[in-house]
Amino acid sequence: MKQILWISTVVLSAVAAGCAHSTAPTPALRATAIGAAIVESSGGKQLGTSGSMLPQPLVVQVNDAQGNAVTGALVTFRAPAGVSFDPAASLTDSSGQASTNVTLGGTSGRYQLTAASTDKTGKSFELNITELALGYQEQIGYELDQNYCARCHDQESSAERVSNYDNLAVKPHAFTDGDTLNKLSDSDLTAIISHGGPALNRSALMPPYGSTLSKVEIQALIAYIRLVADPPWRVTGVVYAKR
Amino acid sequence: MQSVKAKFVSFWRALFRDPVLSFGVVSLLLLMALAIAPAKDHFSEWRHYQQQYLRLIRDRGDAVTLQRHFQGGIRQIWLPELGVVDRCQSCHTGLGEASLVDVSAQPFRRHPVIPHRLDEFGCVICHRGQGGATTAAEAHHSMLAREEPLLPARYIESSCGQCHHVALAGTPKLNDGRNLLGRYGCVRCHTVRLPDGSTMAATDDPPPLTHIADKTSREWIYAWLKDPASYAASATMPNFQLSDADARDISAFLIANSQPLPGDSLPISPAAAKSAPDPAAGASLYGESFCASCHAVQNAAGNVVGGDIGPELTRVGNKLKPEWLHAWLKDPRNYDANTLMPHYRWTDQQLSLLTGYVQSKTDSDFLANVHLDSATPQQIAHGKALVTEYGCAVCHEIRGIAKPENFAPDLSRVGSKPLAQLVFVAGMQKTLPDYIDGKIRHPRTFGAGLRMPQYTFTAGQVDALTTALLSLTDRSFTLPTRLQIPAQPMATYQPAGHAGKLMAELNCFACHRINGRGGDMAPDLSWEGSAVQRPWLDAFLKNPNTLRPALIRRMPKFNLSDSERAELTDYFMAVYQTADIDRDSMPTSGYSPALVEQGRQLFYSKYSCQSCHQVDPKQDKGYIGPPLTQVGSRLDAAWIDRWLKNPQALRPGTIEPNQNMGDEDAAALTAFLMTQKTSGRQEAKK
Fold it and tell me: Which 3 state secondary structure label does DSSP give B465?
């Protein structure tokens, strides 16, 4: 009788362990240290394809009150539905950094991610990071930008493409310059792309692309410009009344 | 048993003792049965979502428009030709409403802008799932026989690939994946047949191993087989995860099987080696020959810098025998008739310089621990068996081993493979994309005795490959042919005669495209004879450094002899012409000063060409297009005139915008540009 009891206990506990294994998430991480502030190290403001993993991992650093890196602090990553992290929580390494691979959601647009940790008093402190997801239209706009526009509008030079920005007497606006470009309506942007700078009384150094790019391509380019604008561009037009 | 029967009988009597009561009960039952169908309809999931949608749009500024667009009930797209019966819009009611841009909650999100109309293609062609279903669970997640779940958004570009077999601007991941299938030779073992009947072709260039003992040592072969990435970070050869003994035996077989090739070994004369002018001369010859346009080298930071047409050279000194390299640089086609390496006409001194410089690229740790005893006949025989087993001859030419056909499973329809036919590894999500992803990442974990090698792909590359493989569906074969956009096969154009042979030796087609054949690294030369002036072309071939000196990837200097250069120039000027341009219709000089001045005004004001081009290097700074300081000595006037009116007509895809220039403006600008000639002083300097 005793033997049966013993066996059934073993079997039951094994079943329980099996169930626990299949339902419980990965064992919770335990912070071995705590910090006071969280800063971005790299991987913010990336351009990715919607539904895909960002090209670079997101790396954040946890510092103490003196600004020194903290090893072993627990960082958890949060984001709107559709975004996934691998891993969603991690402990900072010997240089105080926690890294995660971000997969963006299936729709294009700006994604606001949050990296959070807790301080001594148990209060949470966090860092907001923005990532951009290119949809179909924005992706085409991005390719067009890389081929035609970025040569002048992007100040950054690479080995493959030397920027023409410094060579121009009148400086073009970066596409991220939301302060300027958000003020231009879609039809203004269409006009300046199609007919060149003089269409809006601006410099003739901006040539007309209306016979080179199709209407669909110009719309795609504008969708891309709206996506990367900083401060973000907001839809105008229809007023959404709330009762 | 008895008691149950008794109970039933007493219940029956209690119920039907009264005929009125029995009539009432039966009527009630009938009524309830009749109510089931309308109730099911009323409480259906889609009706619930439609009510939610109406509540959502009620408070919006454009509620009236949205309500007018709204159609209740089951909505269906029926396209018999495509086999589409999609009822997705019964719940996804706002798919076509552009003004719902701020709504992120499903199922009410609008569809992003795409080039196709919903009512022409339906939903499942791109998104998969069960279009006919009217519950979310069945439509999205069903995995029953012949049913499939929704395609995750990260692979959505694969659906474009069912019809579009050419690269699209909006599908970078799919394009990337297809390129990888060719570049890593996946399609050498796995046949991929496309709906138009063609077969996907590999774009890698695995070297023949017939004379390998002339080229390298057995130790290097061993180390390479054990881990190709340890020799070259950008190696496309995968890791077959061979045991030490297997790698030893294969290397023994390859060396024993190799046949010496006459002229494959060229000793470097000590006199030539000593006559090096200075230690940096080799490096500068490597630089000015633009070897880096095709060959990469890993720098101290671990980045692989340079082109990917030829093999990476980071540790090439550990691999090659100097005598072989010397002979190879002198004439690469002696060893490999189909190599992409151009035949540079280097002098003997340059050859020994370059050989010495390339051989100096070594890593003292590599091969340090490789010690092989001389091979036994048993080892060689075992090596031969292994070479056959692993299918080495699918990619490499190996003497005495026939190229196996259909070595690995055909992947022509892998994107529709039924789940019932797949064997999953424990702990894996049981979906087709996850299966393909796992097979690419860790092919050997799927069972014992599998031969597929281990590749070192990044996460992005695995995603791209999975996307490309998922595009190979059953549906792509059954879609109407009017929807199919087949890939453009590369033209097989071959220039004839002695000039054609010269162009093959220099491998012009690796970078330039002519008549539809060739690469896109350098300008299309199909109409070069209509574009340029003969003296310029001759001088350019002599010293290609003159046009766009700031570019990294540049035309190398091939050191052609005077007669070779003249032959090539003659051929270009005579053959590569367009019938649309009459070279003699406009003069190369003698334009009136007034017209030239008008052209100058147009150049600097109306068209502001100086934003991209330079005419006067002192004041113009634009550096996107080529400098025009000597354009009057370079280009033909009729070509300039035609180019100004429509650049894309002469070179499709060029980034110079088409400004719809009128005849008068184009003539004036042409006159101005034709006055920009090589000055006498610069001529004298050469």
Answer: helix
Q: Are A175 and A192 in contact (CB under 8 A)?
A: no
Interface of B with A in 624-663 (CB under 8 A): 624, 648, 655, 657-660
User: pLDDT tens, B190-225?
Assistant: 999 999 889 999 988 899 999 999 999 999 999 999
Using alpha carbons, list the distances in angstroms from residue B523 to B42, B547, B626. 66, 12, 12
Tokens encoding A33:
């240290």
**What pTM does this model have?**
0.86
Query: One-letter amino acid identity for B608?
Result: S
Report yes or no: A128 and A80 within 8 Å, Cβ to Cβ: no
Residues from chain B contacting residue A55 (CB–CB below 8 Å): 460
With an 8 Å Cβ cutoff, is A55 touching chain B?
yes
A-chain residue closest to B160, CA distance: A136
- C-alpha distances in Å from residue B456, one per residue of B21, B242, B409, B460: 79, 16, 21, 12
Q: Distance, in angstroms, between A177 CA and closest chain B CA?
A: 21
What is the pLDDT confidence band of residue A237, given thresholds at 50, 70 and 90? low
C-alpha–C-alpha distance, residues B172 and B168, integer Å: 7
* H runs (alpha helix) in B303-347: 316-319, 322-330
Continuous H helices in B606-650: 631-634, 637-645, 647-650
B224 CA to centre of own chain: 26
Q: What dihedral angle (degrees, nearest 10) is formed by the CA atoms of A185, A190, A191, A194? A: 170
pLDDT 10s digits, B458-470: 888 999 999 999 9
Count Cβ atoms below 10 Å from residue A136 Cβ, excluding itself.
23
Q: CB contact, 8 Å: A235 with chain B?
A: yes
Judged by a CB distance cut-off of 8 A, whether residue A177 touches chain B is no
Delimit the domains of chain B by residue range.
Answer: 2-42, 45-150, 172-203+411-483, 212-381, 497-575, 583-685
Residues 6+ apart with CB under 8 A from B593: none
| pLDDT tens track for B114-162 | 889 998 999 999 999 999 888 989 899 888 877 889 999 889 999 999 9
Number of Cβ atoms within 10 Å of the Cβ of A138:
29
Residues 531-570 of B with CB under 8 A from A: 550, 552
Residue among B494, B473, B332, B493 nearest B413 (CA): B473
* Tokens found for residue B566: 């003249």
Under CATH, what is the fold of the domain B583-685? Cytochrome Bc1 Complex; Chain D, domain 2 (1.10.760)
The DSSP secondary-structure symbol of A146 reads I
- d(Cα B661, Cα B683) in Å, to the nearest integer? 33
What's the ipTM? 0.85
For chain A, give the longest Cα–Cα distance.
98
Distance of alpha carbon B164 from alpha carbon B155, whole angstroms: 15
Q: Which CATH class is domain B497-575?
A: mainly alpha
What string of H, E and C letters represents the secondary structure of B362-414?
A: CCCCCCCCCCCCCCCHHHHHHHHHHHHHCCHHHHCCCCCCCCCCCCCCCCCCH
Which is nearest to B220 in space by CA: B208, B210, B232? B232
Domains in chain A, ordered, with CATH?
Answer: 37-134 (2.60.40.10), 136-228 (1.10.760.10)
Contact yes or no for B608 and A140 at CB 8 A:
no
Q: B212-381 — its CATH code?
A: 1.10.760.10
Q: Which residue is listed with tokens 């000595």?
A: B633
Among residues 117-146 of chain A, which lie with CB inside 8 Å of chain B? Answer: 135-137, 139-140, 143-144
